[in-house]
Amino acid sequence: MARKAAIVGGGVIGGGWTARFLLNGWDVGVFDPDPQAERKISEVLANARAALPALSDVPMPPEGKLTFHGTIGEAVEGAEYVQESVSERIELKHRVYAQLQQANPGVLIGSSTSGFKATDLQQGSPAPENIIVAHPFNPVYLLPLSEISGSEKNTEATVQKTVQIMKDIGMFPLVIRHEIDAFIGNRFLEAVWREALWMLKDGIATTEEIDEAIRMGFGLRWGQMGLFETYRIAGGEAGMKHFMAQFGPALKWPWTKLMDVPEFNDELVELVSSQSDAQSGMYSIRELERIRDQNLVGFLRSLKDRNWGAGKVLREHDEARAAAFHAEMQKGIDTGPKAAPLVMAQMQVLPGWIDYNGHMTESRYYFANSETVDNFLRLIGAGMDYVAAGQSFYSAETHIRHLGEAKLGDRIRGELQIISADEKRFRSFVRIMKDDECVATIEQVCLHVDMKAGKSSRAAPEVWAKLQAIAEAHASLPLPEGAGRAVGQKR
Amino acid sequence: MARKAAIVGGGVIGGGWTARFLLNGWDVGVFDPDPQAERKISEVLANARAALPALSDVPMPPEGKLTFHGTIGEAVEGAEYVQESVSERIELKHRVYAQLQQANPGVLIGSSTSGFKATDLQQGSPAPENIIVAHPFNPVYLLPLSEISGSEKNTEATVQKTVQIMKDIGMFPLVIRHEIDAFIGNRFLEAVWREALWMLKDGIATTEEIDEAIRMGFGLRWGQMGLFETYRIAGGEAGMKHFMAQFGPALKWPWTKLMDVPEFNDELVELVSSQSDAQSGMYSIRELERIRDQNLVGFLRSLKDRNWGAGKVLREHDEARAAAFHAEMQKGIDTGPKAAPLVMAQMQVLPGWIDYNGHMTESRYYFANSETVDNFLRLIGAGMDYVAAGQSFYSAETHIRHLGEAKLGDRIRGELQIISADEKRFRSFVRIMKDDECVATIEQVCLHVDMKAGKSSRAAPEVWAKLQAIAEAHASLPLPEGAGRAVGQKR
User: Fold this and answer.
1) Within an 8 Å CB–CB cutoff, is residue A68 touching chain B?
2) Where along this sequence does the record place binding of NAD(+) (chains A, B) (predicted)?
3) How many Å is the Cα radius of gyration of chain A?
């Protein structure tokens, strides 16, 4: 049975949490008295569905069930976790917790607050140990950070349970060791925000110039290493101490106006918003969201390729889910393979996959085939471990037919049929399907290789046994139309 | 003749500038009295060579000539631009400028200073108008930002000349409208640095936790949108004013310790450096540099795919260089095509192209073919404009043979031979070459398509004329070994 989370407060943040839980297979019960809540959440969810699955190399679990409720009590029924994202008013939060804890005593409550400490949130609660801060960053369905901040009333077990739930939905829980206002992330955001407001007010730079200064320079560094690791490099071979010695004195220089706070008045608001309109007004907020999401997907995918930073979190999350997925597939094989092509991969056409025509670019069909074949190799026991031990299947040649078109956002799947196999090679025929339409076929011969010897060899007996069983089951399938074709051959 | 820049001061920053100019085809004369300068610059250059070309989709120009000189006078001879990156001591900078201006009166001098204003730098100079700030961010060969800051003594022409030189080497010049200490970028870095030091000192978080808080959250946002555009989205449909109203009051909250500066003493230095060792000490600085560069290449490439932010800068730089490259290729065609395969693409195996075996992943051979064919289409007049006007060549089927292996960093090229062509289709045979080794062949049939009608059609007469001329020239070439093969066919 699916696990269940309750979401109280369904704005941009609550909606983001809803999407993250749902797409990770949890059921979600939402409570928000705003009559617009359902519409707002469905919009966030649409964005999330177009972006989050693009980070996964393992088919997503079936989406959980989303329900909206008229009372907090109904929403929290059967939930093991609540994410509270209501307005930053402490008395409102206290009221919400009282109702949650009455309806579902013992439920764990994480708060999205960026203004209150756990100690503040826990006041007046009969079970303060079950209330903790889990502070995310927008968009919640893409950015992994969740700052976990408890008080001395939270047990280690509660903290660890929260950490585990965050990991289960693919987040990076950062446990903050001492209770402080604004946790860690927002302290930096606040510092930069103040400095930026001064620059605007003093007419030094516009909102656009400030954004360019960030995203053309240090912003790119921070997305993958942060502050200290970046500076460690700047120190060069002499290291961090050298960097400190070099730049330490700047602390005393008059570089910043941070010692003072600009007056927050209508004039300042007008200045910022009119400049922001000039900079970004040509895009609607929805468009900006989609642009942002696609950029973030690009960053996160490239970090995932490198197994670094946030990309490492994605890989670990995949690995946890891959085990379950492959166990499921394995069951099907162990009970005897069927005479039907194997659905070995499910993918979505990503922003980086399309060409200037707006279609999935040709080489991505080959990529889709590789994903399909790689999953098949894992299935027959010739995955990463097998490669690490020095054996592998290498593709020798490949024939691709382009029969249709896939477009941005389309969901496609790879279905694999074994045409022939022996102990040293197999010939596969993969159909890339978009719903019932076959958009491409890929026929391929893969050779088994002893990587150390650098030559063709026999597969390990247990791998061959699985391959053979599937090949025998598939032998009764008709030879696919187009198999055995050469390029340019008449039909 | 190549343009020439002089580099005075050859540390990490000077070395980064050297690399950027050289790889963009400029000759570079370096002056640095440090006996280690040549070694240091060659190390930065090695990093740059492994990363910067990976951002380009147009073959890089031939590298400029790098020379080291014993005097400033020799280094600046024949240079149209000087980048000064010596230590932050004003009397040293003044001395350097005096020698530069004596040896090459009228030469434009940009300073990498982060501490001095143009007014400070210009003092005592006979030609203050030729001295300006051009402040870069490390690594200079990858990050596009160059903050251009002049004083009232600089003419608009000088500012524009600096801007143009920065664009010529692929940077994003940001002209700062008023002279301020630390320009824009470093003001933010300083604000964050102060807040970070407080957190460390107060034991709230370690260097590693702070880095995670940045790179798992807002750091990812900042690399592509910056501060204000991100907050514009956070304001939702109600926009920037709503965001300001919501978060403005936080300016008065006690979230930050920025009103005060932590004391800079040995204890603080020790705290930071020991935590940094624990966090990153398992990597050498060189390793961290390579990891950083590969991450940045990933970010920048994904922004380039989306034509957004720093990726837009890359595209514009490519376009400027593509025009020259294609004009050169065109000359070869206009003077009558030769009976030899066309070298249509030069590429480098990028970090994102390799599989778990460490080899160039299969689908990237198809990608390399697509790059080759796309450049060919541009050559015969069927490029982006042709597609925009509603006509295109679509690939119908493709046969790939994997004959060898390319590894990370290998330079490969795509050589194209036309096997047959008529007005409605052509059959191409591409060899992917690594030096003299053919690592893959790709045979393909492309059909000419009227995109509106959605069906096969005749190519425009001027396109067909070029295609036909090349096809006729190639008709005398022998049919390549492997052409016409089907998958699994016996040799």
Assistant:
1) no
2) 9-14
3) 27
Q: How far apart are CA A360 and CA B395, in angstroms?
A: 12
Q: Which fold has domain B338-474?
A: Thiol Ester Dehydrase; Chain A (3.10.129)
Report DSSP state, residue A127.
-
Which residue of B lies nearest to A311 if distances are taken between CA atoms?
Answer: B216
A365 backbone φψ class: left, alpha, beta (φ>0; ψ -120 to 50): alpha
Tell me which fold the domain A336-474 belongs to.
Thiol Ester Dehydrase; Chain A (3.10.129)
Other C-beta atoms lying within 10 Å of the C-beta of residue A60: 17
| B12 annotated to a ligand binding site | yes
Q: Using CA atoms, how far apart are residues A65 and A26, in angstroms rounded to an integer? A: 7
Interface pTM, i.e. ipTM: 0.79
Distance CA A183, CA B147 (A): 32
B452 burial type by CB count under 10 A (0-12 exposed, 13-18 middle, 19+ buried): exposed
CATH superfamily of the domain spanning B185-282: N-(1-d-carboxylethyl)-l-norvaline Dehydrogenase; domain 2 (1.10.1040.10)
For residue B135, the surrounding DSSP H or E stretch is: strand B131-136
Question: Considering only CA atoms, which of A87, A94, A38 is closest in space to residue A66?
Answer: A38
3-state secondary structure of B478: coil
Residue B146 CA: distances (Å) to CA of A294, B133, B134, B189 = 26, 9, 6, 15
**B406: number of Cβ within 10 Å:** 25
A–B: how many Cβ contacts below 8 A? Answer: 510
Longest pairwise C-alpha distance within chain B: 81
What's the Cα-to-Cα distance from A23 to each of A7, B38, B138, B421, rounded to whole Å?
A: 14, 54, 39, 49
Q: Is B479 on the interface with A (CB under 8 A)?
A: no
Domain B4-175 is of which CATH architecture? 3-Layer(aba) Sandwich (3.40)
Question: Parallel, antiparallel, or unpaired: how do β-strands A425-434 and A411-422 relate?
Answer: antiparallel
Do A430 and A416 touch, CB atoms closer than 8 A?
yes
A201 near B CB under 8 A: no
Going residue by residue through chain B, which has 491 residues, state the pLDDT in tens, using 9 for 90 and above.
Answer: 799 999 999 988 999 999 999 999 999 999 999 999 999 999 999 989 888 887 877 767 889 999 999 999 999 999 999 999 999 999 999 999 999 999 999 999 999 998 899 999 999 999 999 999 999 999 999 999 999 999 999 999 999 999 999 999 999 999 998 888 878 998 888 888 888 888 888 888 999 999 999 999 999 999 988 888 888 887 776 667 777 777 666 555 554 545 555 676 788 778 777 888 888 888 888 788 888 888 888 888 888 877 888 888 888 888 887 777 667 666 665 666 788 999 888 777 866 677 766 788 888 999 999 989 988 998 899 987 898 899 999 999 999 999 999 988 788 999 999 999 999 999 999 999 999 999 999 999 999 999 889 899 999 999 999 999 999 999 999 999 989 988 877 76
B148 annotated as belonging to a binding site for a ligand: no
Residue pair A314/A55 in contact by the 8 Å Cβ criterion = yes
**Cα distance between residue A418 and residue A477, in whole Å:** 9
3-state secondary structure of B379: helix
Give ∠ CA A254-A256-A261 in degrees, rounded to 5.
Answer: 125
**Domain residues of chain A, as ranges?**
4-175, 185-282, 336-474
Which residues of B are less than 8 Å from A248 in CB distance? 264, 269
Distance from CA of A335 to the nearest CA of B (A): 30
